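During the reporting period the student researcher (J.K.) took over the structure-prediction task from the postdoctoral fellow and processed the backlog of single-chain submissions. One of the processed entries is reproduced below for the supervisory committee.
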Amino acid sequence: MTESGSIADLGPLNRAREQRAWYFTDWAVSAFQTTVAGVLFAPYLISIAENAVGEHGRIHVLGLSIAPGSLPSYVITLSTVLSAVLYPLIGAMADRTSRKPDLLAGFAGVGALATALLFFLDGENWLYGSLVFIVANLCGGAAVVMADSILPQISTESERDRVSSVGWAYGYAGGGLLLAVNFAMVSLHDSLGMSTELAVRLSMLSAGLWWAAWMVIPWLRIERRAPLDVEQVEGSLLTRSFGQLWATLKDLRNYPVALSFLVAYLFFNDGIQTVIASASTFGTKELGFAEGTVLGTYLLVQFVAMFGAVGFGRAAHRYGAKRVVLAGIVGWMAIVTVALVVPADRLVPFLLMGVAIGVVLGGTQALARSYFSLFIPRGKEAEYFSLYHAMDRGTSWFGTLTFGLVYQLTDSYRPAIFALIAFFVLGGLLLLRVDTERGIRDAGNARPAVI
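J.K. obtained the following structure tokens:
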């Protein structure tokens, strides 16, 4: 009760209501991230390109000769470069408006529509599929930037690890649930009276519909808040956004702890992303498992990661996010070390590796998000999270380049995946140097009970 008028403080109840709505942002977008970007799009696009030029033919784009099997990598790389350029500008624009939930829903809506349009990808039209996927992927990342920037607005500093972790768990649950349904549809396509191609196209359509439908909940239930501490710049919204972005980049030197964390995050997150991206190749090419077995293990990882994210959130409440993230990094070091000796064609050790990845996967990333939010000055949430995602995507090729070079030198995926331990060691050492107390104080945020 408050002292004046004995009116109950409804703040915690209102935050809890918004937090429950916010969880569905992860639940919604994960359908695209798992079913489309994670599993189905790349092999299907390769088959479409092969239909156009043959398995050993070449696609010619802007003077480049591209093998069909390399096309998804080029598409994702182009999307990554564009996102690194666009996201900071989008973040600056978002912090100048009270309509972040509307921007969240807008980007999600366009991304969901583009995802649904992949249903029409058939025959030989690889260019159509490539362009539509780039739009969906860019909008998916922009929606994540908006969702992350809302996190500090709907939670106190002490609540943030829990809220971020539960949101991540929702993402794994939602994405895994739809992926399981689509996995069954693709696997049983003959029994359902459809071709493999139609089953894949229907799966991508379902991801777009899922994404759009569930995003209605956060759009309706998250409050519109007036912007805070925006840079006073004259001109159009676009001009003012560039001015705000430039001011933020200059202002970043006043928050050295936030910058230090971003550098640490780039290393250990690049290691995480490369392990996930190369896991299916490692399972099929190095360990000799069928693609169905690897996909089943992917589903297992999704399921375990849901509980891992919640468990890491609870551990952070007791020990602090930084310590728990460091423990997760040590776990990743152990995983890539075990990859050196895990036996081929032995299912149980492979499944145990999947369980271990699931335990540390969601929790490490969820807590990195909430931990970074402590170093963001109020009113600049979207800008700082756009830098967080832009720097992540802009350097995400370091790990894959290392993986590829080591494989080329050794002709084995075991040392290639073990080489990623360098990213975890460097990221962990840099994270150890992050001064949490100073970062919170510099940003003007409240100190959580446990850091």
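The committee noted the following: Confidence is low (pLDDT under 50) at residues 1-6.
J.K. will present the remaining backlog at the next meeting.
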